[in-house]
């Protein structure tokens, strides 16, 4: 059973690519839905499998959703949350 965050072969963590729905911050993301698939891809691209960065990004996503009174996690929400974080290359 996959819980949405899985360990890769190299030991890093990443969002899983399971074909079932995932719950993130109390919201269900369906990989078959275009908007949700974009959000999942953005999280994967930004974090590159870094579990600590996932832990830092999710509270910022929740903050952006709350401040803007949004209900849907979109690519723009994730980009706004990531812009708040200091992320090295």
Spatial sequence of strands, sheet with the most strands? 1-2
| Mean of pLDDT | 77
Principal-axis shape equals globular
Reported for the largest beta sheet, the result is: 2 strands, antiparallel
Q: Write down the Rg.
A: 12 Å
Number of strands: 4
Q: How many discrete domains?
A: 1
Q: What order do the SSEs take from the amino end to the carboxyl end, as H and E?
A: EEEEHHH
The portion of residues forming beta strands comes to 5-15%
Total helical elements: 3
Name the structural class: alpha+beta
Helix percentage? 40-55%
Low-confidence stretches at least 5 residues in length (pLDDT < 50)?
Answer: none
Alpha-carbon distance between the two ends: 32 Å
How would you describe this structure to a colleague?
- It is a single chain.
- The protein has a two-stranded antiparallel ribbon. It has a two-stranded antiparallel sheet with strand order 3-4.
- The radius of gyration is 12 Å and the shape is globular.
- The protein is built from 3 helices and 4 strands.
- Helix 1 runs parallel beside helix 3.
- With 89 residues, it is of the alpha+beta class.
- Strand 3 and strand 4 (27-29) form a beta hairpin.
- 46% of the residues lie in helices and 13% in strands.
- The chain has one domain.
- The mean pLDDT is 77.
- The chain starts with a strand and ends in a 5-residue tail after the last helix.
């Amino acid at each position: 059973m996959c819980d949405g965050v899985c360990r890769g072969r190299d030991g890093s963590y990443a969002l899983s690519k399971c074909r079932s729905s995932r719950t993130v911050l109390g919201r269900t993301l369906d990989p078959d839905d275009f908007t949700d698939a974009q959000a999942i891809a953005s999280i994967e691209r930004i974090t590159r499998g870094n579990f600590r960065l996932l832990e830092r990004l999710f509270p910022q996503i929740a903050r952006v959703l709350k401040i803007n009174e949004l209900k849907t996690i979109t690519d723009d929400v994730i980009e706004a949350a990531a812009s708040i974080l200091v992320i090295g290359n």
